[in-house]
Amino acid sequence: MIIGISIALILSSMLMVLLVLLHKGKGGGLSDLFGGGFTSSFGGSSVVERNLDRLTIITGSVWFICIIALGLLLKPA
Fold first, then answer.
1. CA 59 → CA 51, 55, 56, 68, 75, distances in Å?
2. What is the C-alpha separation between 2 and 21, in angstroms, rounded?
């Protein structure tokens, strides 16, 4: 079980780095390559940017849960 959670932690960490790098910064970002032209009337962010935000939050939650689970499993008795 520890090995499975460790693998999930490594994968979620790498995915989190990728997702953060895809986010739009001050002058534009890599997310513009994937449909940055589709704007919405809600706050001016694109559909892709909102989905990227959701995916980043989900990945961060998985990462956090893996950290907590490993901490509980590896806690000395």
1. 12, 6, 5, 14, 24
2. 29
Q: How many residues does the chain have?
A: 77
Instruction: Please tell me the pTM assigned to this model.
Output: 0.72
> Over the range 12-51, which residues count as b (16 or more CB within 10 Å of their CB) and which as e?
beebbeebeebebeeeeeebeeeebeeeeeeeeebebbee
Task: Assign 74 to helix, strand or coil.
Answer: coil
Q: What is the CA radius of gyration of the chain?
A: 16
Task: Please report the sign of the dihedral spanned by the C-alpha atoms of residue 40, residue 49, residue 38, residue 47.
Answer: negative
Please state, rounded to an integer, the average pLDDT across all residues of the chain.
83
Residue 12 reports pLDDT greater than 50:
yes
Residue 4 CA, chain-centre distance (Å), reads 19
